[in-house]
Amino acid sequence: MKNDKQINRKPRGCLYIIIVFFAISVLVSILISMGDNSSRQAINDEDIIIDVSKFSKITPEQLIEIMGEPESKEEWNFKSRNGNVYPTTTYTYKNGDYEFLVIDNKVVEFNIYSSENNVMKYTDETSIFSMFGITPADTILKVKGTGTALRYESVTDKIEDFWIPVLNQEDRTIDIVKVIYDRTYFGAPPRMAMTISEQTDLQIRCQNVIKSILKAPSTAKFPNITKWYFGKDREKIVVQSYVDAQNSFGAVVRSNFQITFTASGDTIISLIFDGVEYINK
Question: Is 2 domain-assigned?
Answer without folding.
Answer: no
